[in-house]
Amino acid sequence: QLVESGGGLVQPGGSLTLSCETFGLTFVDYDMRWYRQAPGMTRILVGRISPFGSGTDYLESVKGRFTISRDNAKNTMYLQMNNLRPEDTAVYSCNAGGTGYWGQGTQVTVSS
């Protein structure tokens, strides 16, 4: 089970940190991923982090603004989002290694 938290309403230029806590899986067996789905759009990969955190990669439009990290002792992944833009508005979901393990999603709304 994956449980996201930390979403909300934020003004443009603001920051949010999302968390994805996992239960019942061997966390270090998986690269972990953040996806987002805006209204009327397909879900896209925002970024991912390798099992021990040594490597990350990001969607081009979020590079330099978003940072993915993980705490393997807490079985938790994070998404630090800075300088948020209205186009970042979406439901953000986490996924374990491209498998069928998904969280329920958390809404992020960027609006003044």
The mean pLDDT is 96
Structural category is mainly beta
CA distance, first residue to last residue: 34 Å
Oligomer: single chain
The major pleated sheet works out as: 6 strands, mixed
Percentage of residues in helical conformation? under 10%
Q: Which series of helices and strands comes N to C?
A: EEEEEEEEEE
Shape: globular
Main-sheet strand order equals: 2-10-9-4-5-6
Beta fraction: over 45%
Radius of gyration: 13 Å
In short:
With 112 residues, the protein is mostly beta strands. It has no helices and ten strands.
Protein architecture, described:
The protein has 112 residues and is mainly β. It has no helices and ten strands. Strands 2-10-9-4-5-6 form a six-stranded mixed sheet, with no helix packed on it. Strands 1-3-8-7 form a four-stranded antiparallel sheet, with no helix packed on it. The model has no long low-confidence stretch (mean pLDDT 96).
Write the layout of secondary structure elements.
Blueprint: E1 2-5, E2 8-10, E3 16-22, E4 32-37, E5 44-49, E6 56-58, E7 66-71, E8 76-81, E9 90-96, E10 106-110
Parallel strand pairs: 2-10
Antiparallel strand pairs: 1-3, 3-8, 4-5, 4-9, 5-6, 7-8, 9-10
Structural descriptors:
112 residues, mainly beta, six-stranded mixed β-sheet, globular
